[in-house]
Amino acid sequence: MRIRNSYQLFLVSILFITSSAYAQNDTISYYENTMEEVLQSSDEDKSVNYDDEIIELREKLTQPVNINTVNKEQLRQFPFLSDLQIENILAYLYIHGEMKSIYELQLIKEMDWQTIRYLSPFICAEPIVKKNSFPSFSELWKKGKREVMTRLDVPFYRREGYKDKYLGPPYYHSLRYTYQFHDRLFAGFSADKDPGEPFFARCNRKGYDAYSFYLMIHDIGRVKSLAIGDYRLSFGQGLVVSNNMLLGKSTYTSTMNVRTNVIRKHSSTDEINFFRGIAASFLLTKRLLLSAFLSYRKMDGTIKGDSLTSIYESGLHRSEKEADKRGAFGLFFTGANINYVGNNIQVGATAVYYQFNHPYLPTYQEYNKYSLRGSNFYNFSTDYSYRRHRISFAGEVALGRHGVAMLNRLQYSLSTGYNLLLFHRYYAHNYWAYFAHSFGDGSSVQNENGWFVAADIVPLRKVALFAAVDLISFPWWKYRISRPSQSADILFRCTYLPVYKVKIDFNYRYRQKDRDVTGSKGEDTRTTYQHSFRGRLNYNINSNLNLQTIADYRMFRQHGFNGNYGYQVTQSINYSIKKLPIGVGLQGSYFRTDNYDTRVYISERNLLYSFYIPSYQGTGLRLSLRVQYNINNSWLIIAHCGQTRYYNQNSIGSGDDKIEGNKKADLQLQLRMKF
What we know:
Elements (H helix, E strand, L loop, with lengths): L5 H15 L2 H18 L10 H12 L2 E2 L5 H4 L7 H14 L16 H7 L3 E2 L12 H7 L1 E11 L16 E10 L3 E9 L16 E11 L2 E12 L27 E4 L9 E9 L4 E12 L1 E4 L2 E5 L8 H5 L4 E13 L3 E16 L13 E15 L2 E10 L3 E12 L2 E10 L20 E13 L2 E12 L10 E15 L2 E15 L8 E16 L4 E14 L5 E14 L4 E12 L6 E2 L13 E2 L2 E12 L4 E12 L4 E2 L6 E2 L2 E12 L1
Parallel strand pairs: 1-2
Antiparallel strand pairs: 3-4, 3-33, 4-5, 5-6, 6-7, 7-8, 7-9, 9-10, 10-13, 11-12, 13-14, 14-15, 15-16, 16-17, 17-18, 18-19, 19-20, 20-21, 21-22, 22-23, 23-24, 24-25, 25-26, 26-29, 27-28, 29-30, 30-33, 31-32
């Protein structure tokens, strides 16, 4: 029998309403913490751009999904929802009909307090309105939402390269336009130039250094999705192709849930992680979806003779040497995916083919002996998932020109708030998949065999715990490891909410892995030990004032050598003056580390649709101020300035990026107009 009388609903509302005001802050913090942990999970110092993920997060927050019309595919986009929770939400709607309020989430079986706080900002409860066919041009023009945004970064320092190498001014500038009609139509373009790149001059006579365009349409008859221009793909578990940058190892099980077979728009200024061409998904039957895609891009690299010897992924074209790498080779990519979704089962298959117009022959090193080489490549895979009651199983098996890769995940929900997770992945040392991105210890799906066991539990209403152990072996050499090796990784997180306004997190991580002794040229490889501690206190004093304190402590030691240490303390204050309306954020960080191995990461909120997570080493102080002024419903201005001062050095950086002096200050300005 349905609980619907006003008294019962009132009681549920009282339990939930006090926390809903802070739920959006919790959700944003959840994504920030996730991105920060995934970034730090790999020792390979590879740049990761989260702008597309941030943009999608903001869009979901400003366009909540109507819970009464939601389907399984939409719910699967929220990584913090388990398969069982998704089924229970849909079952509740089927049995009881429309929700009158999102407070009813507490009445759904298996929905714990933490998941509700994460989900509530993304949904609303509204009466069901029949969806019409694709809107007319007049309706698109009148009801569509448009946004123009521009950004300017001004550095108050001068790098060594500006003396005689860099071709342009030291400013960063970007321009972005977006159009959105509900969840049916998206269009836009972006353009940007990095510091040091010329603007309407020399190698950039057409203006900006990089341009991007996209058109994304959903639900036109049997056409589920259609992308023209720049887009992203994710299929299966990511062993063949995935542009999902949130996949990785962390203390959040959401980074390990890969269950979307989607074509998504590429709307950020990221110059690397996207495809350019056309992609579409077609409903062959109610349960069978076919996706096909075609892409061709000019990419940066180094050509020697007729061979491509390296792929250049920084996107920077500041000097003549960097500009010569621009568009050096072409990459053709095509493929298809077919996916069947039943009540409790899903089966899919992916096939891709890609070709370099120059043979790719990277400089030979023993550790990259089995890396990608040649001109023509292909990958095939089968992915699958099955759920029965509280047990869910998912995986993928992939093949290429050489080697095999497989990943399998088993999850068991003992009861509400009690989940066990088991991962096994085997990535052969000679498996090649240039576009793969999945769960693992490194940044590539190759040369890794591991078992990952985790428990994610909510033993008390105010306490959530996560613990995991990852045991890994590497059959072949890796960068800075001149022999087959092994690794162990232990992760722990405790979240405590003494009251709705206060949240306390404690994280611990232990890593043990082999590494060549510096200067030994690979002849001496020893085990390294690393301990990382983090405490975080988040206090929402009221709806206008938020305080956050973060402290990190890191220890690193290689067998036979003395240990190194590092720590940092960060305090941030965010205050909103709603009558003006102005928001002010102040953050200060003090850090002290012995070397690069004990470096610390300090996240910093700066501008819309961007997330700043720099690493620091040495001894210093970082201060930043962020001011946001909402002039009206259409105009928004943000100014962010910061300064880093080092106490143990007289210069910052090296080579062309070297800055004389121990201070580094910068200013960022952003203007947004909505109409």
